[in-house]
């Protein structure tokens, strides 16, 4: 391994040394592509280029070709509108191996550029005894875009010298340069984890790379059986979905290392894999910090050589290493058991990991708030499943759309806008529409409130004494005014119809309304709750449903008890319109 930071030594000793597979790419081919791209970029006068690749070998060629040409590189984490706008504002050229949607700047297709044979033009590489050396300018760097804790994406600069130091540390820590193994992966090289483990580590260690990612357990298993020995670069999301049906007796002997990062592996999965003798190595780190620590069989995390840890009074972790720009503060809270290990306790901000992807709840909320229908929103991990949920207070336009087109239409409309700004995994799966979000004085919504909102069905509005009724009755204590058997007793109640009323299911998806029988049930329920009546009902008389009662409608209910006739008279109105009325006759009390 070469320690020089003015370039990269590729330890592939011969022109026909294999650099990548599927399809095979020899060193001479790799060298020719990098050299040809470097010349093209210099001819174009390009200074900033954005990369988007499926093929990791071509991506590696593009990265080195850009750096050798003095071009600064933007790594797009996805092709969402917001990401493409960032790339196209900062760069003048896309370099890719595929057609890109709605590209507003030129696209250089490296798959079309690649020559079939080594180029005869002057080479940017220098021949060394143990490989090829590529000189790189001191300011060679890549820019990665990641979710910020404030909700605004953050752009992180990674200099080549930092990536170089990080790769050498990992190779030494795990003796990767001595492993005759092919590196296969389920993660993308467009993110920091993949950039380090799928590009920088194999290039520095001379490991052969499988060019195409395998995103599913079945394809990863099939890919593994093509090689004698493999290193898996994968994630907790994939490891936690491994089916028992795969031919593990044929796969496990071929695994030299299984690297997992991007999130913390569930403890049950980790123990199960270690009990089955998996060569599992977890990595803890982030785009901002790079790798921080690792763990194998132990439960605590061990910092990698060169990494210094600090904690503040709230035990939030700060990291300084040869691959950070000074000290990098994180939002992770840790517990130090000793100087050589620590335990992760969680995060102190509103970032969470879903399927190993960092999701900013603030970012999701900001994206939703841009929709005309949304007045306020709170997102959180769903108590119903392992995805996000959203409590949404609709605007007047949102309520009108809900009433006119139904709940599904509103969810689809807001989701479509959110999907343009965040990863599809971050689009909330479960939605509730309270009339007002239950924020406290600090504008916070508690976890218990979220849990209750999604697990307790809404079967009626919150009825309150109407203002007219309250002004007519001086006492605030119902027990002082409402004797259970008092004759001619009357109540006036008011409420707004909840948007999440369970009775809207089936009445009707595109035109929700409160069924008449539900209004009758509310009248009886409220009368009994206020001790206006008791005993068994005998019959319903003169029952009428005259007008629709819809989501968010203000409504009033009058209840009048005639003790002589043992009948409850009720009306339900929205504004001046009567929606339901009738009499309920009760049996004589014993």
Mean pLDDT: 88
At the fourth level of CATH, the homologous superfamily of the largest domain is: ANL, N-terminal domain
Q: How many discrete structural domains?
A: 4
Rg to the nearest angstrom?
32 Å
- How much helix, percentage-wise, in residues? 25-40%
The gross shape turns out to be elongated
List keywords for this structure.
590 residues; alpha/beta; Rossmann fold; GMP Synthetase, Chain A, domain 3; 4 domains; nine-stranded mixed beta sheet; six-stranded mixed beta sheet; 17 helices; 28% helix; 30% strand; elongated; ApeI-like; AMP-bd_C_sf; AMP-binding protein
Task: Produce the secondary structure layout.
Blueprint (H helix, E strand, L loop, with lengths): L6 E4 L7 E4 L3 E2 H18 L3 E5 L3 H13 L3 E4 L5 H10 L2 E4 L10 E3 H4 L12 E3 L2 E5 L5 E6 L7 E6 H15 L7 E4 L6 H14 L2 E3 L6 H8 L5 E5 L1 H4 L8 H4 L3 E6 L6 H9 L4 E7 L3 E6 L6 E2 L4 E4 L4 E5 L6 E12 L2 E7 L3 E4 L2 E4 H9 L4 E8 L6 E7 L1 H10 L1 H15 L8 E3 L14 H9 L8 E2 L1 H6 L5 H4 L7 E8 L19 H14 L7 E8 L9 E9 L4 E8 L2 E10 L4
Parallel strand pairs: 2-13, 4-5, 4-6, 5-10, 6-7, 12-13, 12-14, 14-15, 15-16, 26-27
Antiparallel strand pairs: 1-9, 2-3, 8-9, 10-11, 16-17, 17-18, 19-20, 20-21, 21-22, 23-24, 25-26, 28-29, 29-31, 30-33, 31-32, 32-33
């Amino acid at each position: 391994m070469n320690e020089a930071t003015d370039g990269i030594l590729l330890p592939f000793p011969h022109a026909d040394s294999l650099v990548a597979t599927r399809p095979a790419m020899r060193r001479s081919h790799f060298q020719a592509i990098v050299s040809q791209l470097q010349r093209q970029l210099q001819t174009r006068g390009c200074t900033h280029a954005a990369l988007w690749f499926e093929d990791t070998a071509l991506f590696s060629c593009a990265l080195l070709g850009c750096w050798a040409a003095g071009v600064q590189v933007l790594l797009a984490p996805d092709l969402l509108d917001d990401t493409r706008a960032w790339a196209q504002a900062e760069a003048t050229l896309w370099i890719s191996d595929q057609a890109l949607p709605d590209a507003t700047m030129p696209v250089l297709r490296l798959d079309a550029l690649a020559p079939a044979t080594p180029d005869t033009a002057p080479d940017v590489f220098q021949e060394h005894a143990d490989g090829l050396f590529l000189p790189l300018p001191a300011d060679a760097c890549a820019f990665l875009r990641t979710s910020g804790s404030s909700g605004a994406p953050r752009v992180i600069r990674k200099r080549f010298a930092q990536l170089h130091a990080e790769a050498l540390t990992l190779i030494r820590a795990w003796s990767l340069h001595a492993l005759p193994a092919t590196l296969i992966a389920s993660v993308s090289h467009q993110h920091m984890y993949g950039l380090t483990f799928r590009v920088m580590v194999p290039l520095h260690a001379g490991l052969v790379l499988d060019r195409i990612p395998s995103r599913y357990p079945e394809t990863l298993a099939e890919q593994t059986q093509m090689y004698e020995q493999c290193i898996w670069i994968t994630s907790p999301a994939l490891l936690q979905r491994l089916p028992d049906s795969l031919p593990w007796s044929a796969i496990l002997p071929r695994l030299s290392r299984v690297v997992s990062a991007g999130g913390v592996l569930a403890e049950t999965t980790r123990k199960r894999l270690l009990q089955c003798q998996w060569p599992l190595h977890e990595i803890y780190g982030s785009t901002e910090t790079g790798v921080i620590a690792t763990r194998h069989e132990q439960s605590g995390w061990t910092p990698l050589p060169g990494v210094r840890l600090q904690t503040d009074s709230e035990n939030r972790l700060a990291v300084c290493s040869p691959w950070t720009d000074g000290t990098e503060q994180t939002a992770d809270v840790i517990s130090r058991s000793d100087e050589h290990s620590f335990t992760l306790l969680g995060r102190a901000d509103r970032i969470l990991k879903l399927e190993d992807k960092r999701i900013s709840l603030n970012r999701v909320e900001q994206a939703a708030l841009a929709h005309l229908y949304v007045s306020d929103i709170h997102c959180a991990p769903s108590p119903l499943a392992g995805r996000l949920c959203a409590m949404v207070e609709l605007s007047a336009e949102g309520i009108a759309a809900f009433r006119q087109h139904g709940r599904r239409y509103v969810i689809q409309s807001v989701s479509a806008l959110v999907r343009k700004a965040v990863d599809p995994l971050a689009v909330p799966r479960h939605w509730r529409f309270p009339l007002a979000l239950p924020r406290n004085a600090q504008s916070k919504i508690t976890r218990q409130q979220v849990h209750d909102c999604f697990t307790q069905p809404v079967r009626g509005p919150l009825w309150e004494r109407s203002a007219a009724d309250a002004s007519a009755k001086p006492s605030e204590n119902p027990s002082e005014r409402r004797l259970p058997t008092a004759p001619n007793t009357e109540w006036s109640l008011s409420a707004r119809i909840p948007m999440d009323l369970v009775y809207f299911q089936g009445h009707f998806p595109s035109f929700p309304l409160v069924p008449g029988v539900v209004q009758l049930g509310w009248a009886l329920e409220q009368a009994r709750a206020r001790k206006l009546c008791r005993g068994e009902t005998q019959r319903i008389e003169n029952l009428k449903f005259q007008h629709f009662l819809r989501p968010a409608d203000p409504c009033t209910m009058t209840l009048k008890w005639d003790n002589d006739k043992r009948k409850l008279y009720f009306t339900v109105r929205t504004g001046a319109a009567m929606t339901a009325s009738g009499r309920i006759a009760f049996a004589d009390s014993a």
